[in-house]
Every structure is written in structure tokens, then in C-alpha cells.
Amino acid sequence: MGRSSPVDLEAAIGVFDSGVGGLTVLNALRKALPNENLVYLGDTARVPYGTKSAVSVMRYAEQAVKALHARRIKAIVIACNTASAMALEHLQNCYPELPVLGVIEPGALAACKATRRKHIGVIATESTTNNQAYQKAILGIMPEARIQAQACSLFVALAEEGWHHGELVEQIVAKCLKPLMRGSESEGALDTLVLGCTHFPALSGAIAKVVGSQVILVDSAATTASAVKARLVSEKLLNPQQAPGQLSFLVTDGPERFARVANNFFNEQIDAAGVELVDIQHHTATLK
Amino acid sequence: MGRSSPVDLEAAIGVFDSGVGGLTVLNALRKALPNENLVYLGDTARVPYGTKSAVSVMRYAEQAVKALHARRIKAIVIACNTASAMALEHLQNCYPELPVLGVIEPGALAACKATRRKHIGVIATESTTNNQAYQKAILGIMPEARIQAQACSLFVALAEEGWHHGELVEQIVAKCLKPLMRGSESEGALDTLVLGCTHFPALSGAIAKVVGSQVILVDSAATTASAVKARLVSEKLLNPQQAPGQLSFLVTDGPERFARVANNFFNEQIDAAGVELVDIQHHTATLK
Q1: What is the mean pLDDT of the segment spanning A182-209?
Q2: Which of A186, B38, B93, B127 is most open to solvent, judged by the fewest CB atoms within 10 Å of its CB?
């Protein structure tokens, strides 16, 4: 493994997202790894990432992971599809001594396991869609898969504003997914749809109504948590302590807003007073 | 005026916004001041500002204006309601030798001129609404005014995605404005509504349908341009050149996306190749 010093097994897993969306992954990590300490960093000062360029996302992600690395950390989870699509390899190169896992590969794997007719849809932010990370990851596992991708940037705002259910939300979702469903008609029906943004599970009820019950919805949260657990087991990094893991939260802006919006995504109550404000923008990134 | 050197009258007016919304103000400036050179800076690397904290917005605005100030600039227009609400005074203190104008005072003035029964609604981003800048500015002009404010953060995403018209947009607008309209019923009807975010004029047709034709919609664009013109006249800063003014565009991220989305807001075609990418995040701000 090439580590220069013994690993601190009680150290936390650092979980990074552009804002609150990664809390859907944090839920799954809590469930899969209840004894692990978790420290979550939301880069709320620069959210959203999904409409920003690759260079900006790589730089922001590097600064965020640098801030997490300065804490007691034994592994990093990039709980943001856009950052995983654009910055995972770069971050793995920056921290070769740490497991650094993203959400795209686990999401692609879940889709390939779920699909019956190998016709997979992917909805994501504009940046993730343009980057084609899901398409590449799915084709890497299942070269014969047919894939249709659709950017749905509006879903991020809907999810953050708490617009998750109801007829109007379904109409908005239907309008956004129209090109995807039209393609599905002409090229044969999709059977699986990847929710390729951590915000989107909040809208899964509305999305399911629009695409129909025959389409299996897949998100990365549970499979990412499984992948993290498998990696900790294989690298003998599990926390030997049997007590419930500690949770801590860092944000780069607005702890009160974070705590309020977080309740749309996270299963446990977050108290704004316990959310620490950190400044990461001064961290030098290798990318200018 | 206390300027240490003669003013360069052919210098540009620097226009700053968090992203593309300020282009609605740029349209009005082009119309009111056709011979002035204008340089527009959109902080697309950190857009939106409307859900961010006062300290972050002040810091971002200071960095942006510093970047504009490094060019040939004779005046600054803060063409963003959130930045005007939170950072105008700070920026005026940073650059006492330059006219630095925001959009809130002109918007408040326009509302006070338009209102018949002194019952004014304000819709804006979450940050502008919480900051109460419009409320204070309106009450400063018209102390007896009754004001109702409502945050409509979702409108920013709608405007940027090009969702401006149609039945579905009207339904979304109606849902967002429901608390405002309900208050309007119980406290007597609003007669004037301030579009307190530079993105919102893109949705004005839908907003007008929802609030009804008896409500006058007011935005800051035209009144801000008039205020800028009056200030240039009074300070003898008008460009003596009679040729059409030059336009230039700076962004902190994604020139291609900027040029594409800009077409939803700006009356002239913007070519991505002519949009300059600048890095302002390294600029030291006085606020940490």
C-alpha cells in the first residue's frame, strides 16, 4: 500500500460534495458503515458545480479535498457526480496514499446490474452529461449497452427548494425528460434510468411517475456505500471501535442555510450550530 | 471630486453581475448611453449569489470590482441585486474616487414613482429578501409604504434554462407567488411589484399573467441606466466620442456557456470567442 506510517483506523471518512446533494450518499454510508466516523464537506460557497467548467470543478474539488485531508482522514468519497466525472482521477493522483472513491463507477455498475435489455438512460447535470463520464463507465462494463443521456440542471434547484412531489413537479419533470422519452420511443424503450446527480433521488417519486414503473431507477448512493465498505475491508481500514460513528459537517458558506436545506436530503437532524464554516478558497490548487 | 489625475473620459463603464442576469441592465445602458464603452464582468465561477451569505457576496464582489478596476474604468455599475444589497456600500468605500452605482436604489425609486396606493411587493433572491435592502430603500423614499417581500430563488434557474413563457412556467410562478398573493388578499391588493433580481425580467410575461394586469411590474434596468447617465452628466464624465461604444465581456468561468445563456437576456449577439476568461479568485479581498 506504500503508506509511510500506520493508518489511524479511527480516523474519519471524508465525504465531499458541492453542497447538500451528497447527503443522499452520506445516508447510505451511515447505513452501510454505522461505526465509521464521517466528516462531510459541502462547498456551498461555490455551489452548484453542474453548470461550471471542468477546470473550475477540478480546482474547487482539489481545494475541498485538501481541507478534508488536513483533518484526521483515512479515505475520501467524492459524493458529487459532477466532481466525480471531472476530478476523480486528478484527486486520486493528488492523494495516492488514500482510497479516493467517486460515485460514477458505482452508479454505472448498479445500472449494468439492473438493466434487462441493455438500454440505459442517464440524467445528470449539464457538466456531467457533457463530460460523458457515465457513458464511458457503462460502456466499460457493458460495451453493447445503448445509452441515452439528458441534462436536467433544473432538477437541482427543484430539489434544493423542496419541490419534490405533486402534480406540478411531475409536469416539470415530464417537460425536462421529453427529449429522453422521445428518444426512448424511437430507439426502443429504456429499461433503466440512472439518477446521475446526488440531488435527483429527492425527485425519484416524480421521475418514476413520468418514466413509468417498467423503468428501474438507479442511484449511486447505496452502491457507492457498498464500494466504500468493500474497499475499507480489503485494505483493512475498518474502524475497530463498535460505538456509533461520529458525524461532523463543514461548509464553505451559510451554515444556517445548509442545515435548513439539508433536511430535504439527510435522514438525521442537522443543527446549524454544529456546522463548521471553513475557508478553502485560499488553498492553492495545482490547477490555475 | 478629489481625483488625483484627469479622468479618462473614453474609459469604459464597468458593469458587474454574478452571471448573465446583469445583461438586462446592460441592455438598458446600451440604450441610454450608446456612445459609452462598456465592459461586463460575470462571475460565472461562483454564480449564483442569491443563496449565498453576505460575507461571501461581499468578498466575491470586491474581487470582481478589483478586476474591473484594473482595466480602463471611469465608473462601476453593480448590475446584480444581491451584490447591490450586500456589497454596494463596501464597494463605494473601496473606490471613493469612482462613481459606484447599484440597482436597488433605482429600483426602489421606480417602484415609488409607479405605486398608486403605496402597497408594493418585492420579489428577489433569498439573500436580497433576507437583507431587506429593497424594504429599507423604499421606506427611505416613502416611509408610509406597505411592503411585502417574497424570495423566489427558483426563478433564477428557470430564467437561465430559457423557461420564460407558457402555461407550465405560469403555474410555477403562481406557486412561488402564492404566499405573496395571499398576503395581498388579506392586507389589500398590491399595486406594484418590484422584480428585484436581474434574472426576473425574462419571466415578466408569466409574472404579469399571475399577478394580474392591475399590478405594475417594475425592474431596475431602465432606472439604473438613467441614474448612471445622470451621474456621468453631473460629474462631466460622458464620453465625448460620438462613435458607437465598444462592448467587451469578461467571465470567470465557461465563456461558451455564458455566450449561449446570454442570448436569453441580451439583445445583441455575443460570440463566445470574444468572451475573455479571467481569474479573479486570487485577488485579495479585505474581507476574509
Answers
A1: 90
A2: A186
Q: What is the pLDDT of residue B4?
A: 58
Closest CA to A284 of B63, B279, B255: B279
A120, A138 in Cβ contact below 8 A? yes
Cα separation, B286 vs A182, in Å, equals 53
ipTM of predicted assembly, 2 dp:
0.90
Continuous segment of H or E residues that includes residue A248: strand A247-251
Under 8 Å between Cβ of B41 and A52: no
pLDDT band at A188 (very low <50, low <70, confident <90, very high): confident
3-state secondary structure at position B164: coil
pLDDT at A7: 87
Considering only CB atoms, which chain B residues are within 8 Å of A46?
Answer: 45-46
Nearest to B281 among A156, A253, A281 (CB): A281
What is the three-class DSSP state of B117? coil
DSSP per-residue string spanning A103-117 = SHHHHHHHHHHH-SS
Furthest-apart CA atoms within chain B: distance in Å: 57
Which tens digit of pLDDT belongs to each residue from A56-102? 999 999 999 999 999 989 999 999 999 999 999 999 999 999 999 99
Nearest CA in chain B to A154: B157
Ordered domains of chain A (ranges, CATH): 12-102+222-277 (3.40.50.1860), 105-220 (3.40.50.1860)
Residues in chain A: 288
Distance from CA of B215 to the nearest CA of A (A): 25
Scored b (16 or more CB within 10 A) or e, A246-281 reads: ebebbbbbbbebbbebbebbbeeebeeeebeebebb
Residue A264 to residue A230: CA distance in whole angstroms: 28
Chain A residues in contact with B172 by the CB 8 A cut-off are 168, 172
Distance from CA of A157 to the nearest CA of B (A): 6
Q: Please judge whether A154 and B153 are an interchain contact, meaning their C-beta atoms are less than 8 angstroms apart.
A: no
Q: Which of B43, B55, B56 to mutate to test the interface with A (most CBs of A within 10 A)?
A: B56
Specify the amino acid at residue B263.
N
Distance CA(A176)–CA(A144), nearest Å, equals: 27
Residues A173, A265: Cα–Cα separation, whole Å: 19
pLDDT grade for B15, boundaries at 50, 70 and 90 = very high
Q: Nine-digit cell at B53?
A: 451569505
